[in-house]
Design a protein that fits this description.
Strands 1-2-5-4-3-6 form a six-stranded antiparallel β-barrel. It has one domain: translation elongation factor selb, chain A, domain 4 (Thrombin, subunit H), CATH 2.40.10.190. By secondary structure, the chain is mainly beta.
Length: 84
């Protein structure tokens, strides 16, 4: 299943480098909770794969939070991830 990287998880003054918000196609928070615990992977244009895990829903509109083993580069925003 495919998902899309939306943005870094951030606050007003801080950015969490390993935490990202993903759109996995869920319509609401209840549907997004079904994805918690699944693994995700992002593949760079050079072929390098960075793995992560979905940890929690984010907000009420179906976004999820994922923590990656390493931080993704800024170019990863708006690109696809593979949800397993």
């Amino acid at each position: 299943m495919k998902g899309k990287v939306i943005q870094f998880r951030r606050g007003r003054h801080t950015i969490h480098e390993r935490h990202f918000l993903l759109d996995v196609g869920a319509a609401n928070k209840k549907e997004a909770e079904k994805f918690v615990g699944k693994s995700v992977s992002w593949k760079s244009p050079a072929g390098k794969v960075i793995a992560g895990k979905i940890t929690a829903p984010h907000g009420n509109n179906g976004l999820v939070r994922a923590i990656f083993e390493r931080g993704l580069p800024g170019q990863a925003i708006t690109t696809e991830v593979e949800v397993k």
